[in-house]
Amino acid sequence: MQTQQIQVLQSGTITSPKGFLAGATYAGLKTFHEEKLDLGVLYSESPCVVAGMFTTNRIIAAPLVLNKEHLQKRPSAQALIANSGCANACVGPQGLADAKEMASLAAKKLSLKPEDVMVASTGIIGVELPMALIRRGVQRIEMSKDNGHLLARAIMTTDRRPKEAGVSLEVDGKVVAIGGVSKGAGMIHPNMATMLGFLTTDAAVEPAFLHQALKEAVDDSYNMITVDGDTSTNDMALIFANGQAGNRPLTATSKDAEAFRKALLTVCIRLAKEIARDGEGSDKIIQVTVEGAASGEEARQAARTIAGSTLVKTAVHGNDPNWGRVVAALGRSGVRVEDTKLSLYINEICTMDGGMPIAFYKDAAVQSMKEPEIFIRVSLGLGVHKAVAWGCDMTEEYVRFNSEYTT
Amino acid sequence: MQTQQIQVLQSGTITSPKGFLAGATYAGLKTFHEEKLDLGVLYSESPCVVAGMFTTNRIIAAPLVLNKEHLQKRPSAQALIANSGCANACVGPQGLADAKEMASLAAKKLSLKPEDVMVASTGIIGVELPMALIRRGVQRIEMSKDNGHLLARAIMTTDRRPKEAGVSLEVDGKVVAIGGVSKGAGMIHPNMATMLGFLTTDAAVEPAFLHQALKEAVDDSYNMITVDGDTSTNDMALIFANGQAGNRPLTATSKDAEAFRKALLTVCIRLAKEIARDGEGSDKIIQVTVEGAASGEEARQAARTIAGSTLVKTAVHGNDPNWGRVVAALGRSGVRVEDTKLSLYINEICTMDGGMPIAFYKDAAVQSMKEPEIFIRVSLGLGVHKAVAWGCDMTEEYVRFNSEYTT
């Protein structure tokens, strides 16, 4: 199956796949943001196979502890409750008690068991969840097919825009959809940054393949974005597959497994790029391609290091084709480099070839960098491996914002 | 021997030890800085044992290639020539030819052989050294015992202040001195950041011990500072020991070996802290102590990660005791952490104890953070290992500066 058969859905979101409803309300947790939704629920009309990926941070917020335990026991659930404003992290044993109560509150509302509900929180670290507000808030939430957009807004923290995406494709002769929402604008770095990604599909998918497909998609999307180098205690990606499309359950050897993988990756990349584009204070998204690497991991490592370099980010902010900073970041990334084989392009203007600087027309390069999307391409000339990472520029606004706001 | 016998020298600098002369001039390379010295020479009246530490960046500037080859052949030299304004990095084969010519120019001036001269450059990457200016400039340099201060200024790039230090101590019954100068304000990160450190001593020191003592001192000083996470192609630390104090050559088993080690570390820490304090756009130095770590390397790793966290740096800029960001940075540093054993102090105000948040008096903590030196202490409760790292706050000025200036 070809990727061109993957259709991007207009206004695609987490409730685009069949059988998913969502809702959200303002419980009173998010006191610092003009967006006044802060508590949301996702519900599937039928049980779902579920897979999850979690932060690599050694300090892990309570909801993640609960979800990881859950998925170790059984890879299924039917709902999700998520709040913004408070991360439910670093608050001792009360954290897990509160996460469990959030699951119970959603279960009661939806006539499910608590063990059918996944939980997520994002916001300030080190203060307890105001459960009294959450108890009242849950009751007000109205579930609807149209409310995926509200859930996208309810998980925003410092995000300027909600992040939603959806695609459809054919699997086993049936039309299936994959949709999702994300949040994240700061504390964003490879390996599950302060990032929530919730995905749904109406495809029927075997648990092992769903986990594998999610891991691969996350590795090439969410794990390839960086805003400020800081990962969080609360990052996670979850996918719910309810099987309502009626296909035979997908496994790794299904004819359409590859199409499903690509479609899931498409949704994840769209959501991840929206996070990079919405980086706190940023004006521009930076796409870094590293090709010709000696290994896939080195390509990834180099691309992420360049995309995350403070000096590259500030140069992009200033429309400065300062390729020396790209080379310095590449050099410290730890990957194998032979300087005589190294070439470098900024917006496809060659600035270094075979290790030698090229006398490029700087004014034109500066002009090209005024676009909202900047492309940096590094060719290592050592092998066939390639990777793409996304970051954003760093602005005075980023510093102002993070100096004034207690995350 | 006790450390209290180490005396800090008033106005100590690279020419404080006996037999060292220095000089500097404006050759015309440094076009962007009000400090108009950009070419300097260090000379010892007698041959020196020399040791060096070099950047871990995979892209290495030509002077470092030359010096590394030099020290592999023989650990001795008698002079150093250094320029700022141009890094002599990423310019192909011409780089090594120019570095060799710089050594020859200094050798001719000082009646030495080219192989008696070490070479250093710092500044913009990717443009060739204007050798015509350097040829003329070298001739103008006047060598003097008093001109260590000029050499300190000649290696400045974005530095706001020259960085100099010196101590004296007794070795083998003789008074010996150790002095040094450094530069560096941006592209500063552990493992030899954009940093030059030149050290001298009139102690007689065996080559193997000099190398070992330098490595240890650099590991606990220059390698524990971070400004912006970017390491450079040009970082190095060199020490010249000319033996004019008349002591029997120091080895690792000498009675005063430990005193020499401590004195060298004292000089290196003073210079390294000046680099952190002078971080581009920064107002404050941040000292991060990690104690109770399960291993020494983990203590170092955790301290450096916290000191380098963009979110910690912006919080310090805003006088915000946002300890959640410290915990998040600690968690992603990769070191072993048990959250129930974790305690955290900001300016010795406890904000977390045994993994539980403490309801501290926030206004007082904010007030304490208005000082120019901020202390963050993390106690892991897992072992006996400890490390200290230094960083600086991140300001709007940092972004403005690095958006406008081609390094």
Q: Mind explaining what this structure looks like?
A:
The structure is a homodimer of 407-residue chains. The first copy, chain A, has 407 residues and is an alpha+beta fold. Chain A has two domains: 3-276, L-amino peptidase D-ALA esterase/amidase (4-Layer Sandwich), CATH 3.60.70; 285-404, ArgJ beta chain, C-terminal domain (Ubiquitin-like (UB roll), Roll), CATH 3.10.20. Chain A is built from eleven helices and 15 strands. The first copy, chain A, has helices spanning 62-73, 94-110, 131-140, 148-154, 207-219, 257-277, 296-308, 310-317, 323-332, 362-368, 396-404; strands at residues 7-8, 20-25, 39-54, 76-86, 117-124, 163-171, 174-183, 196-201, 236-241, 285-293, 343-346, 349-353, 356-357, 373-379, 385-392. In chain A, the strands form two sheets. In chain A, strands 1, 2, 3, 4, 5, 6, 7, 8 and 9 form a nine-stranded mixed sheet that branches. In chain A, strand 6 and strand 7 (174-183) form a beta hairpin. In chain A, helix 1 crosses helix 2 (94-110). The longest helix of chain A has 21 residues, at 257-277. The N and C termini of chain A lie far apart (45 Å). The model of chain A is unreliable at 189-193 (pLDDT under 50). Chains A and B meet through helix 8, helix 9, strand 13 and helix 11 of A and helix 8, helix 9, strand 13 and helix 11 of B.
